[in-house]
Specification:
Keywords: Membrane, Transmembrane, Transmembrane helix. By secondary structure, this protein is mostly helical. It is built from 7 helices and no strands. It has one domain.
């Protein structure tokens, strides 16, 4: 796979999820149905593509302790988000209507440990890891100082309003496109001691 592809495709799939989510809510409720399932599958595909972005950014940062911890946190959070979105897809298939979805979600979240790991703290690791690793790249001079700012904006916008997910994805795409452009540049030569 082209190493630049995940850096472009992941944000585009998040953008698709955000747009589909808005369309799904036009009737006043979200899910179940085709839009619910399609949007969630787009986000799951994005999550799968974020794995190679974390691994590649870790390499770009020299595989140091900060980059490794950021990548590990990000991938752990990504796993929690993947479980959350997989649950959403299954609930969407099992429920006849939005009220039925609420009942099923209540059952799932009543299982001890599910809420903190899958819905609360776990997913935060994905966003913290992502901001941290891009900030590390900026501190090392591998990307511009604006790149982690754009990633942070992407993280914050959905907290303001989930309908801002598509706009956040555009900021993420701008940041990730700049990072992926660095992948094709040759590494700087290592100075040889005289």
């Amino acid at each position: 796979m082209n190493p630049r592809l995940p850096f472009v495709a992941a944000p585009l799939l998040v953008l698709a999820y955000g747009v589909i989510r808005i369309i799904d809510g036009l009737d006043g409720s979200r899910g179940p149905g085709l839009a619910w399932t399609t949007g969630h599958l787009a986000f799951l595909a994005a999550l799968a593509l974020f794995v190679p972005t974390f691994l590649r950014m870790r390499r770009m940062a020299g595989r140091d302790a900060v980059a490794t911890a950021s990548a590990v946190a990000g991938i752990a959070g990504l796993a929690a988000l993947a479980v959350q979105f997989a649950i959403d897809v299954v609930v969407g298939f099992l429920a006849a209507d939005h009220a039925g979805m609420s009942v099923l979600f209540d059952r799932v979240q009543a299982v001890p440990g599910v809420s903190p790991v899958v819905y609360d703290a776990g997913p935060l690791l994905f966003f913290v890891g992502q901001v941290a690793i891009v900030a590390r790249l900026a501190l090392l001079g591998r990307v511009g100082a604006w790149a982690p700012v754009l990633v942070l904006v992407d993280v914050v916008l959905p907290l303001v309003d989930k309908d801002l997910v598509p706009l956040g994805a555009v900021f993420l795409l701008a940041s990730f496109t700049a990072i992926s452009a660095r992948l094709s540049r040759p590494a700087a030569p290592v100075p040889v001691a005289a």
